Amino acid sequence: MVDRGASALSLPDDWPTHPEPILALNRMGSFDWDLDSGLFHMDAQAHEVFDVRPDEYDGHPESLAVRVPQPEAFRLDGLVSQALKDGSENYGAYFRIRTRSGELRWTHTQGYIRRDETGRPRRIIGIVRDATDELAESEERLEQAAEDEARRQQTNVVQLTTAALAHARTVQDVIDILKDVQGLTLLGAKSLVMGLVEAGSRIRLVAEGPAGSFVPGTLVTRIDEPYPMSEVVRTLSPRFIESPEEFAEGYPILWPHITGLHITAAAYMPLIAQARPIGAIGLLYSDRGAFSTEDRNVLVALGSSIAQSLQRAMLYEQEKDLATGLQQAMLPRTIPSVPGAEVAVRYRAAGAAGTLGRDIGGDWYDLIPLPGGRVGAVIGDVQGHDTHAAAVMGQLRIVLRAYAAEGHTPATVMARASVFLHELDTDRFATCLYAEADLSTGVVQVVRAGHIEPILRAPDGTCRRVPVEGGLPLGLSAEFGSLEYPVGTLELDADHTLLLCTDGLVELPGADLDDGMRTLTGLVSAGPTDVRELADRLIDVAEERGGDDDVALLLLRRRVLDTPQAGGRLQQHVAPGDPEALTGARHMIRAAVRAWSAGDRADEIELVADELITNALMHTEGAAVVTLRVLAGRDRRLRVEVEDSSSALPRRREAGESGVSGRGLLLVDLLTDAWGVEARGGGKAVWCEFVVPERA
Prior knowledge:
The protein is of the alpha+beta class. The strands form 5 sheets. The chain has a 6-stranded antiparallel sheet, sandwiched between helices. It is elongated and about 130 Å long. 37% of the residues are buried.
């Protein structure tokens, strides 16, 4: 019975050194509780109220346990603890003590909390008095109020436990909440055990507390064995044990192992979900006997709440296992070894998703070996975080790999992937970046579909973002009829590293994309040189940062092969009216000539290739595909091919003295060692070859 409305006592700071005489006149005892030392000083009148002699009391409140029944003491402790915590100045409560004769007598206490300048409670001063006469006429009403308060506290236990369990995502979370010392105190239990049903015939112990209460031989028990948890699972009914004798008689195998816990009562409840038992929980007490009807109802409700939380956690873990398996199945199982490169890939699932199925997303990476010493690197992100996003991602990864392996140009690979996603009958779109690298030359062609730009790191740690003009995300570009993807070209020199990643590694709370890219660039610059160690470092940073987005990462570091490799091949798509594409093609040619040790003929090769590209764009009104390759044989040759969609063959014309055209094929014939025309399906390819001997 709590009297929280009592007014604050107006007592001097040195009280009770000089107690007010009126206290003694009103048969009130005083006390002074030093919270630092724990000493609880009482005057003579307070000794009379508690019916203890001075020689029976040593100044510690625990010594009063002989007079204050355990339930009353538990209630008083809770009241005082709450007042200390919530900043209250005072508290008041009625409680019962048991006199020497065994009689229960009502008592009232009122305390005033003294705090220091920081607000920390240091001392409680107050009074105690015999309230028997005051409450004699309303004993029944007070008992009812006490029962109501106990029922309210029991209901509060269920509510608080349910609230704590609402945040549990895994079975281990549920176990941690129940095993917590505060959780046991809240439940009023001395010890707790919980087991889950396995294979329908046995129970595996998953929690016991506090530490040291484990009973050997009970880790796994059969449901048909004579244990209380096995019984409640078999019968689907709770079991309430109300005395040590009842425990020893009902479960003689278990009782000898728990006598050291001084158990006086126990309650075992089956954990039932969807009409089937999933486990059992036992609460063991050392300070109670019988369970009232209200007690039993509260404990059954508590068991139901725990069962629901466990079922939700088990469903979450099953869903997570399914999602993780699906994600792993969709990503490449292994990354192929690529001569001339060191590669590292990493994937991190979203860690703060909060809902079932959200630990899987549409981020992916891929590495595609291509003919001629080339390799394709892919990074992408399908919209959404669910199994549908992962399924779309898996299909996209497969078609991108297929289109690249068929020999299409990077721009065509991206355009076809966009059409595929648009026709997939899904509302998802995807961002993607495809980089095709010729490891013999270091020339990398990059196509970007709404994705973040790559980062290039030099051997000295210098990092920079590589600006690449981009197109619309996959799926959207096909929907809006914009399938042109510009191709950017960069040079990946020896020991330089190319980094491709999804935005989960870049986006920071409260920061824009540029800030995130600058932060990432700084991390890469300061990171280790080894690509695997660098990948681990970046993923560790992502783990520490948390976040609700996946992270996919691909690092490719170019190494120079010990021996020159023949068969190098580069390809560039040039659209009509696109000066950037033409500039990119020239850049590719210049880099290839230098990488393939054909510098002595660099001007000739670049001039002829430029002439062939210009002719294709001017006379066919369509796009051109430029291909450079090294042909090994008796004479090492560099071959240039310009393919267009027109079947009309080029013809040689004589230019007049003031003519500005007509000299193209004359230049080709004059500067090359061989040239010709080949039919290619509905179009043709004009080719030429230059002898480029190996350097000594």
